[in-house]
Specification:
Chain lengths: 242, 229, 252
Amino acid sequence: MISMNNVSKWYGSFQVLTDCSTEVAKGEVVVVCGPSGSGKSTLIKCVNALEPFQKGSITVEGISVGDPKTNLPKLRSRIGMVFQNFELFPHMTVTENLTLGQVKVLGRSIGEATEKGLKLLERVGLLAHKDKYPGQLSGGQQQRVAIARALSMDPIAMLFDEPTSALDPEMINEVLDVMVELAKEGMTMMVVTHEMGFARKVAHRVIFMDAGRIVEDAKKEEFFGTPRSERAQQFLSKILHH
Amino acid sequence: MSGFDFDVIERSLPYLFREGMTFTLTLTALAMTGGIVFGTLLAMMRLAAFKPLSMLAGAYVNLMRSIPLVLVIFWFFFLVPYIGAWVLREPNPIKVGTFWSALITFTMFEAAYYCEIMRAGIQSIARGQVWSGYALGLNYWQTMGKIVLPQAFRNMLPVLLTQTIILFQDTSLVYVISATDFLGAASKIANRDYRLVEMYSFVAIVYFVMSYGLSTLVRRLQQRIAIIR
Amino acid sequence: MNYNWHWKVLLEMEPGGTGTYLHYLLVGLLWTLATALAAWVIALAIGAAVGTLRTTPLKWAVRLGNLYVEIFRNIPLIVQMFLWFFVMPELVPQGLGDWIKQMPPPWGSYVPAVLCLGIFTSVRVAEQVRAGIQSLPRGQRLAGIAMGLTEAQTYNYVILPQSFRIILPPLTSEFMNIIKNSSVALTIGLLELTGRARAMQEFSFRVFEAFTAATVIYLLTNLAVVLLMRAVEKKVRVPGLIAAAATPQAGH
């Protein structure tokens, strides 16, 4: 469904991504990990063209992301994205956050959009907060609303950019639970995270990045069993043993 | 319009700059100095623990900031002769030239604005700095003068200078008391020779070049300060 | 001080015979407000557009916006007033210029004053709008775009509503500035509040009564604006979202 071919990206003369290639099949859950600054967030932001790239190609269901003729808003509306800092719109209520895209991008009626939004809100366990503003919710609650907001657009795939790293430890699980459930329902997901427990539980594949390159791209069992590269071994031992 | 007459500008250059611009720049420099000194004192008063003092300073600053500069210029233009008579114990209002009237006005008026800048500057200094001053045995004036104000002044230097550029532009309002500042001088020529378009365009260009140049310098300074910090 | 106050002068008839001096001053206040409000509409419209343009990735738009801001920020207000009043009618085609010059009073002064103040203030509004937009986290724009909103929609629904809430306090002080700055229009013959206080002083020789009355009227007007804006702020306040406190800025 998502296919990347030799994607390279520069900030000025500094290369942040070098020849990244991978495939994500329909229904597959891929976890992207690696040390900070390795380019993993940049990589998934390339998938919906939030970050432009200068070389290589990315296609989503056969549509080329880098092609200037591609209708990017339309493409992006079909890919859900969840950010590290939630990025709910603080001046809108939870319900308004959930309906904005549906109404303005998909052209749904307000009634239809609200109904859909509330259903998703119930699913993430926050129906009681529908009229609150994001600033009145905890971080974990905000991130669950953000997931519901992304789902409200009926995405064909979901991108998660470190969805739990801005959260206090006691709130991480409530967000991961929602993501696990989503994975079990067969959603196609690309998840940048350090949560190896999540990766073990639901990932099909793990991509390990270092210095802008995809160093390892393996089945979950292989990755956790016998990572081939030394960098990945070091990374895993650091992350798992404390 | 009967053609643009550059000649009138050239002819009046000595008058415009020797008389007019000298008035403008002297007024700007002196009012800035007086305004910053008085404004800093006002800021210290506003931050004083003694309530009546801070309220008095607050009332003064808010009053100055609430009424138009033009009205303040009129106020002092008529008030200063009376105050002068009172101070000098003269029976009748004394005569005060437009320059002195303008200088007193702008010092008093700009002090209110410099005060707010210095107040923010003083408040931006960590409390620990004040405590460490007191802990060394320094008194209030020593702590302020040696520790807090130098830092506050340096932090706020770009804003203080930007305010001074505004002061430089605002001095042109002395036109309303018929002073011969740069604009006043140009206006006199403009009306004498009926060359308003030429003279006012020229005035605009000169002010633009000077203000733009100064603000570019301030911006550079700001970047340098940002790097040092 | 040796000054004999004579407050009753406010209730005496002004020489034009339209009413008392107090009435004369209050009509001045109306002209001040009429000038300020009309100029404010221009300032907000242009300021919002220019400020927004300067945050876009369009290089030419940013440059054009910067040029606009630098020109109208670096020329003193009174000089701009003279440019609009004396110079502009000479530079436009003669027919239009003559029409402008023949506008009956007070419109001949009012229209240039409104244009001048509107554009002068638009620069300051533009700076606030730009600062407000740039103070938002970058992720807000990305989140809007990621959802499939176009750039324009993202500005419209996500960025601008938040920015305007943030810059409401500085915008309030800009509005008060425009009220104060409208007094400069007396130099092109608009009899607004300060102009009328000055005229009253010339007719009646009651200097300090005239200026005190004008000062009190300005203070009350300020108070009214503050209360009004506080009500507006309360109305648009979003729970959990704190408006940025006004940072110290040079001004007048």
